[in-house]
């Protein structure tokens, strides 16, 4: 195992898969010789050339549609949107065709595509800070993957590429330089398996994407007050590993969901509802959510800091829930 | 429109009180001005008149007579005009009266009905009496442990029962468990105990009862005084021979006129009032950073009742005649003993006199009744041999009494308090002096 950044780990996973399967190719703006805006493909152009690392014009709807067709014919495209926000220009084809073809063809046509893009508020303003997790959770046929740690980025990207259905692979911009130990070679993580990143007994916090990091900081603060929180990183929101969350809540009987994304109709609402349906009699307090403010990501740094949960606000929410 | 009956505010600082009893029956017609119910305030029971006419409908899930304190303004029932009587429903009740009674009788045969009814969405009668919030997990836990959670007062927000409350009660119910519950757990009397109340007491423990409102008030008040004042007690033996002879004279005089005889407390009040006028710092109180000297002398007289210590107040003692005082105190003490003293009659004292002489107590250390500055304790009057003239070697039998003055050293110093007590002693030994003023 070596320490590497999130981006390096994901890139290693992509490179290993491209070496294994010649049907894998990447399309996107600046992912060729330039190596990707976020270095997602750095160095790969030299290995595989422009046929497998295809730079595109700014035409998301067009190149995503081409990839859907290529996938139907047996290729395994990786569409690199740079920022998730840009994927919205291709959403019609994604929803109407890409995610539905498997059903519409009675299972005869597979559409193995990875859609990847940076998410999250990271000094990026209203047009480059979307999370939109629940939008994708709402689409049957789409896997929603959000790794937090470098090892998970590698293991989950490899699995996503091998998945026979479309996967949306969301990388929080604040995680891209996060370093961690990453296994060498074949490291595959199944989709739909949450990770208990910190064990505890007083309160379960399910944190989504970058919020895992802030929640771990909060957990350290809370431990000083004698509160032991169990932190769960769901790693994928679709499929959602409610069993792991349920098992944790059966131990702590309290659940807080921390999500930088908006609260209304959000991932936390879905987790809370499923937990209530399956684990109502384990709850010793109402399920609580802590979300980013229901506003577009602001550009001003002080405003930006104010709209996103952080270690302090998470610790406070945890304390509030403990006395509920 | 049905007229709401609520718990009234009996004094400006009253925030809660207990319904003592209904003076009319549920369903009875009540005319405006008739006595409707009685309220136990901080120290007094007061009867409340109906403000409107109508048929009394007592809120079935409202405060129970003799129960716990509730906030001022709590709904107790309704006075319903005749034309609305047939259609009257208590708010939150979706069942006509007749159906409700049926439900109640059904519940008698099947205790599990509470859960069953809850599931079909009809609030059970128990739920309406006292809405209890309990977390789903705590409820499951309680059922598993065999704990009747309806008896638990929860420690969560707004009294919600949490798992830890259930666990604490379960521990308490075990005979081998320690007697004390965590401080956050309070047992409240159940509305309809499914489990007999004595089961709550560990076998080895003494009897437990919920503090009466008066006991609780006394406890709070005394503890506050003990923790905030700087009390010092001075005692002085005084010769009460003249006081006794004065009282005898007064008694013989009023006996023929059929008026109240001034008691020793009345005499002490009058004499102390005179001393207080001369030493106004003992008739003062602390308000924030200021010392407030009060212009009138209102003396509280400690009265022992079967409900606890109650201290009604004699007002403007300095400007009243002894005869007026005797009349007033006799009425006040009678009202205090039978529980009809009003809230206002217990407020506004500037000084207190407490007398334990009838129990053969000589001297003691009374506790200051905040915000007052001092309290005077009177002991018994006993005949003693006293040297009245050391030079001539003359000894006489005199009627002697101890006075114990507890004062708040925050307000006045030892010498000032001693001078005040010395002045009281002088008046007791020469009671005619106060005539001079």
Attribute tags:
heterodimer; A: 324 residues; alpha/beta; Rossmann fold; 2 domains; seven-stranded mixed β-sheet; five-stranded mixed β-sheet; 12 helices; 38% helix; globular; B: 437 residues; alpha+beta; OB fold (Dihydrolipoamide Acetyltransferase, E2P); Chloramphenicol Acetyltransferase; six-stranded mixed β-sheet; four-stranded antiparallel β-sheet
State which percent range the strand residues of chain B make up: 15-25%
Strand order in space, largest sheet of chain B: 11-20-19-18-14-17
Q: Based on the coordinates given, report the CATH architecture of the largest domain in chain A.
A: 3-Layer(aba) Sandwich
The poorly predicted ranges of chain A are none
Described by strand count, sense and barrel closure, the largest sheet of chain A is: 7 strands, mixed
For the secondary structure, the number of strands of chain A is: 14
Number of strands of chain B: 20
**Distance N terminus to C terminus of chain B?**
61 Å
Question: What's the quaternary structure here?
Answer: heterodimer
Instruction: Count structural domains of chain A.
Output: 2
Report the CATH topology name of the largest domain in chain B. Answer: Chloramphenicol Acetyltransferase
- The CATH superfamily title of the largest domain in chain A: Thiamin diphosphate (ThDP)-binding fold, Pyr/PP domains
Strand order of the largest sheet of chain A: 3-2-4-5-7-6-12
Summarize the amount of helix of chain A as a percent range.
25-40%
Q: What portion of the residues of chain A fall into strands of 2 or more residues? A: 15-25%
Question: CATH superfamily membership of the largest domain in chain B, which one?
Answer: Chloramphenicol acetyltransferase-like domain
């Amino acid at each position: 195992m070596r320490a590497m950044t999130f981006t390096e780990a994901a890139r290693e996973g992509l490179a290993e898969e491209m070496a294994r399967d010649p049907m894998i190719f990447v399309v996107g703006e600046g992912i060729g010789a330039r190596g990707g805006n976020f270095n997602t493909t750095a160095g790969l152009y030299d290995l595989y050339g422009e046929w497998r690392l295809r730079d595109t014009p700014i035409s998301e709807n067009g190149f995503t549609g081409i990839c859907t067709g290529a996938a139907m014919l047996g290729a395994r495209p990786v569409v690199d949107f740079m920022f998730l926000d840009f994927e919205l220009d291709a959403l019609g084809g994604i929803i109407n065709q890409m995610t539905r073809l498997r059903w519409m063809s009675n299972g005869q046509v597979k559409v193995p595509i990875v859609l990847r893009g940076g998410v999250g508020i990271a000094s990026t303003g209203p047009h480059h800070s979307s999370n939109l997790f629940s939008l994708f959770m709402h689409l049957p046929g789409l896997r929603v993957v959000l790794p937090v740690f470098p090892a998970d980025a590698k293991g989950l990207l490899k699995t996503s590429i091998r998945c026979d259905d479309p996967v949306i692979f969301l990388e929080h911009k604040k995680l891209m330089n996060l370093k961690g130990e990453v296994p060498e070679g074949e490291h595959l993580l199944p989709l739909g398996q949450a990770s208990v990143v910190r064990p505890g007994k007083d309160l379960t916090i399910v944190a989504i994407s970058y919020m895992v990091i802030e929640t771990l900081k909060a957990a350290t603060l809370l431990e000083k007050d004698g509160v032991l929180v169990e932190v769960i990183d769901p790693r994928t929101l679709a499929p959602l590993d409610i069993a792991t969350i349920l098992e944790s809540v059966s131990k702590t009987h309290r659940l807080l969901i921390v999500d930088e994304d908006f609260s209304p109709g959000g991932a936390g609402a879905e987790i809370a509802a499923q937990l209530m349906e399956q684990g109502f009699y384990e709850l010793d307090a109402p399920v609580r959510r802590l979300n980013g403010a229901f506003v577009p990501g602001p550009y001003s740094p002080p405003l930006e800091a104010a709209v996103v949960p952080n270690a302090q606000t998470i610790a406070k929410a945890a304390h509030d829930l403990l006395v509920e | 429109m049905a007229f709401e009956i609520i718990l009234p505010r009996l004094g400006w600082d009253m925030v809660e009180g207990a319904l003592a009893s209904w003076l009319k029956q549920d369903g009875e017609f009540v005319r405006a001005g008739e006595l409707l119910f009685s309220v136990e305030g901080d120290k007094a029971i007061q009867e409340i008149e109906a403000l409107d006419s109508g048929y009394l409908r007592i809120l079935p899930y409202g405060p129970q007579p003799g129960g716990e304190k509730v906030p001022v303004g709590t709904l107790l029932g309704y006075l319903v005009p005749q034309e609305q009587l047939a259609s009257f429903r208590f708010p939150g009740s979706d069942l006509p009266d007749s159906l409700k009674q049926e439900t109640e009788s059904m519940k008698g045969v099947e205790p599990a009905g509470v859960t069953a009814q809850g599931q079909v969405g009809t609030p059970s009668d128990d739920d309406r009496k006292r809405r209890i919030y309990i977390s789903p997990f705590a409820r499951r836990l309680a059922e598993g442990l065999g704990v009747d959670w309806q008896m638990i007062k929860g420690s969560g927000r707004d009294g919600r029962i949490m798992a830890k409350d259930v666990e604490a009660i379960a521990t308490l119910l075990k005979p081998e468990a320690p007697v004390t519950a965590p401080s956050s757990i309070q047992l409240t009397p159940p509305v309809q105990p499914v489990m007999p109340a004595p089961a709550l007491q560990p076998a080895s423990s003494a009897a437990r009862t919920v503090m009466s409102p008066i006991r609780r008030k006394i406890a709070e008040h005394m503890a506050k005084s003990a923790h905030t004042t700087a009390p010092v007690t001075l005692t002085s033996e005084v010769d009460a021979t003249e006081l006794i002879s004065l009282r005898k004279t007064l008694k013989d005089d009023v006996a023929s006129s059929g008026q109240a005889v001034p008691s020793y407390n009345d005499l002490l009040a009058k004499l102390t009032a005179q001393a207080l006028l001369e030493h106004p710092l003992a008739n003062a109180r602390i308000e924030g950073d200021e010392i407030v000297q009060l212009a009138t002398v209102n003396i509280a007289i400690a009265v022992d009742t079967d409900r606890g210590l109650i201290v009604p107040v004699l007002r403007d003692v300095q400007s009243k005649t002894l005869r007026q005082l005797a009349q007033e105190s006799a009425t006040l003490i009678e009202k205090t003993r039978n529980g009809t003293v009003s809230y206002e009659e217990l407020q506004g004292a500037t000084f207190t006199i407490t007398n334990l002489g009838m129990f053969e107590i000589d001297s003691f250390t009374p506790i200051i009744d905040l915000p007052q500055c001092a309290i005077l304790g009177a002991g018994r009057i006993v005949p003693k041999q006293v040297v009245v003239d050391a030079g001539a070697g003359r000894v006489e039998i005199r009627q002697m009494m101890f006075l114990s003055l507890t004062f708040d050293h925050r307000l006045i110093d030892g010498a000032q308090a001693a001078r005040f007590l010395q002045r009281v002693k002088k008046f007791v030994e020469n009671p005619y002096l106060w005539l001079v003023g």
